[in-house]
């Protein structure tokens, strides 16, 4: 039915190339859509629909993006049967692509296992026996992931790129206005530090400090502050939250959006409303159930960290009616906690609350 409608859509349509006063011959369209057509994403999704059916049939979870697809599954210790389904799924995808004038790029088809070091070694050995080459780290949507999920390689890459741009910005700061300088810092530095920072929950302080030093250096360049001067007043004058608070801000914002049908469903599925067995004052206060974990790495998981961080917020913030109100109240409470950690005067907190 869709293809029949699409053929009728193409009837009588064509294109030509114009260069000044010269025009090429009118050519009728027999396939494809005009460049920039809003139908292109819809038709591409319809074209790739059988690919999702293959993954569902093999009971493989997946995320599809514009130009790539991510598939993943969970394993239990010493149970490698899901890996057989994964290998079969990859073979079926390869066959489907060959039948539909596509080709699976094996150089960009990367396989990685996450978990305990010993278990990852066993899983990699089994994958190698099935002809699947594994890697210790991969890049997914610009984020570098390692088998132990330490994000050290990702932070190192962000640090290297940020300092490269900071050096260039420092060279031209005498030739641009303060407003333009701030725009450059936001575009090349702040956006890189904040990108996917919701994944950096529970990381070691040493790793987070590398990102904090980037923010401090950017603040010094903006305000032309010397290295010997204390950075906290400088950062406060720019109304910049430290990196750890920005991570918590992003996590809580994702929770709010997910609970209010403004975020993706796969995040909302990880959050469960707290329902006590008997009537308590906490009933109806928008608190979340905190899952039980037994390791330090488990506390870094989004399902645990997000619920624990969300429950620490005052009820009036959790129950905000609209997103704008929630964001403004959340920023105020984050700044207040930061000022308390810095042992600021109570007068500053009062002025901040009524700001």
From TrEMBL:
Pfam families named in the record: RVT_1 (PF00078)
Record domain Reverse transcriptase: where: 1-145
InterPro entries: DNA/RNA_pol_sf, RT_dom
Name used for this protein in its record: Reverse transcriptase domain-containing protein
